[in-house]
Amino acid sequence: MKQQPIGIFDSGYGGLTVLKEITAKLPQYDYTYLGDNARSPYGTRSFETVYEYTLQCVKWLFDQGCPLVILACNTASAKALRSIQQNNLDKIGSSKRVLGVIRPTTEIIGKYTKTGGIGILATNGTVMSNSYPIEIKKFYPQVNVFQEACPMWVPLVENNEYNSPGADYFIKKNIDNLLNQSDSIDTILLACTHYPLLMEKIKKAAPANVTVLSQGEIVASSLAEYLQKHREVEEKCSKNSQTSFYTTDSTEDFDNRAAIFYGKPVISSHLSL
Ligand code: DGL
């Protein structure tokens, strides 16, 4: 049977935290993961650059036969998703689909807050795009959204420093900055797919009454619903429970590190873009 995997894209390792939850929920499908590690992080790059890199990676995943690609990266979802959907999909092939991680999260996040105060921790790019405040207001107009950019967090994770005292310092600093914006914040969203690796430290740095949410399970449930509703896309996805991994950087580094994010051993292939 022809391989028509679901494509999962991230700037580096972060999307593996989403893929882990997706494969747990929907193990029957095939998946192809692409991490653009050679050009990561995306969070500090311009709109144009993130769009260009993301489009290149999405096109490659389509060329591998993916009928559907998930941008498992908030920065790419914030800066490139709409442009790809509006400018490129028709030319690439109108039956191809690209989805992001912001919409599924903003649809349900309002259910978690009692006080109506939500804090967003994300990359500079995601914060500057204002995607979360804008999208959350559409679903929950009464909720107040506060944001804090954490530019050091992805480099700490990508460089294997997420357990270091340096990580403690930056996590505390950014969480304090966020919470100082309002006493009403009772829910914090980790709006970057790299951040679940810092979860323990984040929970320690935040008061016990604050709920800290990551996106993996939310995105997995939303994908399951999407595939149920869009049978024409679902029928195209091949179902052999096979997952393959590609990185634009060293496969040795990727394989050594990816298991921490994915929870299982990973063997990747190199992709030159
Ligand atoms: N994992 C990406 C996200 O969810 C960001 C990583 C980066 O800055 O490259 O935003």
Concise overview:
Helices cover 47% and strands 17% of the residues.
General description of the model:
This protein is α/β, with parallel strands linked by helices and 273 residues long. It has two domains: 150 residues, Rossmann fold (3-Layer(aba) Sandwich); 112 residues, Rossmann fold (3-Layer(aba) Sandwich), CATH 3.40.50. 47% of the residues lie in helices and 17% in strands. The protein has a six-stranded parallel sheet, with helices on both faces. Strands 6-5-7-8 form a four-stranded parallel sheet, sandwiched between helices. Strand 9, helix 13 and strand 10 form a beta-alpha-beta unit. It is globular, with a radius of gyration of 18 Å. The mean pLDDT is 95.
How much helical structure, as a percent, in the residues?
40-55%
Spatial strand order of the main sheet: 4-3-1-2-9-10
Going by helix content, strand content and strand pairing, the class is alpha/beta
Strand content: 15-25%
Distinctive features:
Rossmann fold, 2 domains, alpha/beta, binds D-glutamic acid, 47% helix, 13 helices, six-stranded parallel sheet
